[in-house]
């Protein structure tokens, strides 16, 4: 069963709070580093009472040591699922690739001299085992 929009937003708020807690910094410090004029707005975001403003996603991610692009994806998926689907469709219906995923893609391209090889089921199984 898929989550409702409200459940996705709540889950995201919990994740954001966990990221903030893992830094060991106060919410005030994180709010300042994220560019919030008032720390209480960040507290509201972390309690799920308001959304993380789009212009604060990357600064917040940097303040808590998270990948800004990955966090943008999570926010877009939770806050604006229809726009998220449109963006996915724009990129051939595939997930947007994270920096870590790009490393894997580059390694494959390097190993195959950029030939865009056909990947066999056996190769896919081996790749999945590496990351399991």
Low-pLDDT segments, ≥5 res: none
Shape, please?
A: elongated
CATH names the topology of the largest domain as 434 Repressor (Amino-terminal Domain)
CATH class bucket of the largest domain: Mainly Alpha
Architecture (CATH level 2) name of the largest domain:
Orthogonal Bundle
* Euclidean distance between termini CA atoms: 24 Å
What is the assembly state of the chains in this entry? Answer: single chain
Q: What's the gyration radius in Å?
A: 18 Å
If you average the pLDDT, what whole number results? Answer: 90
Q: Order of SSEs, N→C?
A: HHHHHHHH
CATH H-level superfamily of the largest domain: lambda repressor-like DNA-binding domains
Content of β-strand: under 5%
Tell me what the structure shows.
The chain is mainly alpha-helical and 132 residues long. It is built from eight helices and no strands. It has helices at 5-23, 27-34, 39-46, 57-64, 68-79, 81-90, 99-111, 121-131. It comes from Paraburkholderia fungorum.
Main attributes of the structure:
single chain; 132 residues; mainly alpha; 434 Repressor (Amino-terminal Domain); 2 domains; 8 helices; 67% helix; elongated; XRE family transcriptional regulator
């Amino acid at each position: 069963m898929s989550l409702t929009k409200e459940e996705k937003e709540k889950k995201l708020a919990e994740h954001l709070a966990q990221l903030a807690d893992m830094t060991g910094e106060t919410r005030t410090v994180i709010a300042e580093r994220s560019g919030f004029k008032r720390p209480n707005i960040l507290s509201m975001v972390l309690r799920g009472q308001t959304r993380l403003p789009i212009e604060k996603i990357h600064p917040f991610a940097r303040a808590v040591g998270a990948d800004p692009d990955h966090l943008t994806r999570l926010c877009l998926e939770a806050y604006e699922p229809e726009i998220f689907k449109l963006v996915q469709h724009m990129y051939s219906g595939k997930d947007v690739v994270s920096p870590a995923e790009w490393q894997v893609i580059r390694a494959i391209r390097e190993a195959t001299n950029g030939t865009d090889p056909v990947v066999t089921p056996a190769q896919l199984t081996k790749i999945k085992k590496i990351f399991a």
